[in-house]
Amino acid sequence: MLxxxxxxxxxxxxxxxxxxxxxxxAVNDLSFYVDENEIRVIIGxxxxxxxxxxxxxxxxxxxxxGSIQFRGQELTRMKENEIVQAGVGRKFQTPSIxxxxxxxxxxxxxxxxxxxxxxxxxxxRDAAVRxxxxxxxxxxxxxxxxxxxxxxxxxxxxxxLEIGMLLIQDPELLMLDEPVAGMSVSERVKTxxxxxxxxxxxxxxxxxxxxxxVEDIAHKVTVLHQGQILSExxxxxxxxxxKVIEVYLGH
Length: 251
Known about the structure:
Helices cover 35% and strands 24% of the residues. The chain has 251 residues and is an alpha/beta fold.
């Protein structure tokens, strides 16, 4: 627990988080805190528990013990859809976009009003929807690709489109699992630019292996090893930490 700070002082407060699978603790008594408008990157060797942490925050996996508070709400008691409605968006490793729809239609279908059955039936492509779609498309470098079918996009553009599909729902916490895997160098640079641009209104939690990309985006880095924090702080602090070099960066 942080002295002088309460969990509610942070956008996200994870405390004593543990999850066991058949007696194996994939995440073990983990605590960390994310501020408003922060890009936090979680790094660590394979099997360190990184993706499991995102699964726990978004409700895909249930915690065995501990607390996850988002804006003072206890997420461990909420269903996945309630966590999304509370303002937490999650992008998985493989882009899940609608290949046979255009970029515009992919963004439009993600617009919050279309989410319930009634909302979808009553949904009109009005000026507000079009404006929001165009605004997000501009952010994700796809403004000139709005009429293109999604399956014709490059791998990097598909990743951006999926980030856009989350952004259009306006989450306050955006969680991305290896967003630049398989991207070209220029796409990685633009993705860093994109993330640095969108945190004016939200925080971003990223899992990543690409250290150059981590240096370009991270305000703070959390290094996980065997479900626990090995080191935490700025990228400069973490990459010179002997424990981190031994366990992770040395390989």
